[in-house]
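Thought: the user asked what Pimeloyl-ACP methyl ester carboxylesterase looks like in 3D. I have the sequence; next I should run the structure tool and report back without guessing.
Action: structure_tool
Action Input:
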Amino acid sequence: MSAKPTIVLIHGAFADAASWAPVTLELLNQGYTVLVPPVFNRSLIGDSAYIKSFVEQIDGPVVLAGHSYGGAVITVAGVAENVIGLVYVSGYALDEGESLGQLQGGFPDSPLAANLVYSPYPIEGADPGTDVSVKIEAFPEVFAAGVPTDTARVLAVGQRPLAAVAFSETAPVAAWKTKPSWGIVSSADHTINPDVERFGYKRAGARKVIELDAPHLVMQTNPVDVATFIIAAVDELG
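Observation:
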């Protein structure tokens, strides 16, 4: 490969690009080109189309890394021609024709399910939509376990909701069927059942899967491990 790929980090639900900040800094310090675009969390189809368009405007090869819901997004957006690899970080590796709800439904619920808040939001010219967020008081334990208390409190009040429709939309494609993939399982995850991660990565035929004794926000608690894993994937492609 003539040039290092650009590494594009995709955040998940109830978070934003800052959730990747410790990993972003690690990668930048090691000389990689890194981009961390926003995901609007309005719909799987719309979010994936936006990220695919974003990626297609990058000159040269791209490795996509997706955390949590971001894993579902890279599964669809990863069919962009210049994407050469997918790295799942505590993420959903959907199959073609499968939704988040269907994948999760095959496994016991995590503590997240009992700690969600549903709020209507207006859509011009259509019926109101529904935003899903995590109860602020439950956020530190359920979503940000292992993160310093003050940081978790700030993340809780600044979380980016996910539109409920994203749980039921099915993936029109699965990029892992034609692109190599890698996966990180957070074995202490209280947001996604770790078995969901294990199952998805195995089904995708991931080249390598590692398990970290880490919570859902593994990028915050184990940034060196995550960055090292992404770099290893990039090097394998090179």
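Thought: the tool returned a structure. Summarizing for the user.
Final Answer: Structure for Pimeloyl-ACP methyl ester carboxylesterase predicted. The first strand starts at residue 6 and ends at 10. The longest helix spans residues 223-237.
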